Amino acid sequence: MRRIILLMAVAALVVVSTLMVVSVAGAHKHPTAMAHKHPTRTVLIKNFSFKPANITIKRGTKVRWINKDSTAHTVTANNPRRFDSGRLGKGQRYTHTFKSAGKKRYHCNIHPDMRASVVVKR
Ligand SMILES: [Cu+2]
To answer: Given this model, what pLDDT does residue 85 score?
Structure first.
C-alpha cells in the first residue's frame, strides 16, 4: 500500500513538473510570436510622394506614416471612412492598424496626385 502511494506521488510530481515546463516555454514563446505577427511598417512622405507607394502587409499590421516634407500632407483613404490622418505638418506621424483584407488605396487631400496603396493579406 505504501508503495502505491509512493508511486502515485511520483507520478503526480512528474505531471506537475511537465505542466510547469510547458507553461514556462509557452510564456516565453508567446510575446515573440506576437511581435512577428504584428510588426509595424513605416511609409515616409517625402518629396510629395509616399515611399514606398505600394506595400503588402498581413492583416493586423500597424502602418506608420512620417511626413519628412516641410509641406503639410494627409494620409486619406479613397474611402475616407476607413482612415484619414488629417493635416500632418513637418515631422508629424500617423498610424493605422489594418484589420480587414483587401487593397486600400489612399491619397493626400492637399495634393490629390499623391496616390498610394496598402494591400492587406489574410
Ligand atoms: Cu500632400
So the answer is: 98
